[in-house]
Amino acid sequence: MRAQLLMSVAALLAVLNGSAGADPVVRIKDVASLEGAASIPLVGYGLVVGLSKTGDRRQTLFSNQTLANMLERFGIQVGPAAMNVENVAGVLVTAELPVYARPGARLDITASSIGDARSLQGGTLMATALRGPNGQVYALAQGALTLGGFGGGGSGNSVTVNHLTVGRVPAGGLVQLGTGATLNNTGTLALALRDPDFISATRLAKAVNTALGDDVAAVVDPGTVTITVPEEYRKSIPTLMARIEVLPIETDQVARVVINERTGTVVVGGQVRLGAAGVAHGNLSVTIRTTLEASQPAPFAEKGETVVLPTVDVDLREESRRLVALEEGTTLDEVVRALNRLGASPRDIIAIMQALKASGALRADIVIL
To answer: What is the rounded CA–CA span in Å between residue 266 and residue 130?
Structure first.
């Protein structure tokens, strides 16, 4: 298993290294958007029904209260205290409303359990109002949940695959009220880069000027490029944006190492370089075993009693690894080969990267998820 993980990480790093020499070519729409055109987060509270006794239990009171309120609307009077239903679960429903969404558009929604439900598998979300930060209802959500996993079992035996208390309903949200946002026609547009960077902003402005004419685009700061709308596009801003968005540019990448300690995942960017350093990594393991033995008195002894005596064995092992030298300007490919020589697992690589950063030899940002 460890060998397979190491091969997977090495293969990923090798693929990244193949493109380390050149910046990626992308469309402008993939790295920038109109300034001020931000989506609106939506949230609502609802019920998931149809569960197979995996819903909220007695200690979660709000789901019973919600169910009682819903039944009352249908003319059925039942007190929350009289209910003992395990086939429903209270959930928070979230979605994002695109800035130019109009009534009738569909949204993907996510439902997350907020009680003690064990699983939302097989559940259906009842109609739920989704509100924006201002309290206004913008959309209604409803539909069957998809979890991307499953669970089952009973009598103390169970199996669970993936996370079962969060589900999604693709296109389960129906927009009731749009944001009312429109494209401004003031003669100047501003593009906001999703990852602010001077080099990328300069290249974006150059691509726009090459396509539309000199002095049309100008860099304001690392995250903003202003565009003076040419005369022929003054009455059709969407046409101008359609032409700009497909223009190709080369974006500059920040040297970055992304680490997810929960899953043991390490992703090293192609721009990562190392200064001179020596690396040795060995694992120290301590194993403690306790064995219980019965001590009995001799046969026919007049005194004595049987007692249980614990026997403790302590095993201390430290792996011996040789020192690997990394020279100034070491590239990603050389880092991969060095880690392979050390026999490092993904967990080892995390520790090594953090140590290299602390020593000042790793010339990259470390992002821990």
So the answer is: 37
Per the structure, the complete domain to which residue 99 belongs is given by: 43-150+162-175
Same domain as 105, residue 170? yes
Query: Which residue type is seen at 174?
Result: L
The count of domains in the chain is 4
Instruction: Answer yes or no: is pLDDT of 213 > 50.
Output: yes
Which residue would you say has higher pLDDT here, 71 or 43? 43
Among 105, 112, 96, 104, which Cα is nearest to 168's? 112
Which residue's structure tokens are 């089952």? 152
Residue 358 lies in a domain: yes
> What is the overall mean pLDDT for the chain?
78
Render pLDDT for 5-20 as a digit per residue (tens, 0 to 9). Answer: 444 444 444 444 444 4
Report how far apart, in Å, the C-alpha atoms of 142 and of each of 42, 63, 130, 168, 174 are.
Answer: 14, 17, 11, 10, 9
What is the C-alpha separation between 101 and 99, in angstroms, rounded? Answer: 6
Residues 59 and 140 in one domain: yes
Distance (Å) of CA 245 to CA 15, 127, 224, 228: 28, 37, 15, 15
Tokens of 307: 């007692």
One domain for residues 69 and 145: yes
